[in-house]
Amino acid sequence: MIRYNKNLKGAILIELLFVMAIFIITIVSLLSIMNLSMRTAGDSRWNLQANLLAREATGAVRNIRDKTDWDTDGLGTVTNGVDYHLVQSGSPIAWSLAIGTANIDNFTQSIVFSDALRDANQNITGVGAVDVNTKIVTVTISWQSGTQAEEIDVVSIITNLQ
Description:
alpha+beta
């Protein structure tokens, strides 16, 4: 005849509860890691798209510089500190600037120009004389990520290629 110890039955129940608790904690941890991984992948996708839009805008501003006369209808005539956005027109497609921001899918594009100041050594600094043949271009791409606003800024120096 097999005898069971009454205390052994309670110990098996406690061990079973302990194993179930470890299993539940492991599953919850794995689900949390998967959730974080998926959010990180989504954020990376948004950041990549924003960077591509910023690069496209910077390239388009250079294209505008190359296809216009700096002082007549080019970058020398833009107003500093004003939001601009890109506009495509014509065939073949040509870029131009329009005042205001643009919504591109879930992103907002803003291009702001400012004067480049050069010191006595002709270095671009925050002080000095205005270089009329150089503009500082700040391309800002912003978007909403969940409840948080995100943005990237790409700053470039564009010169008049005479």
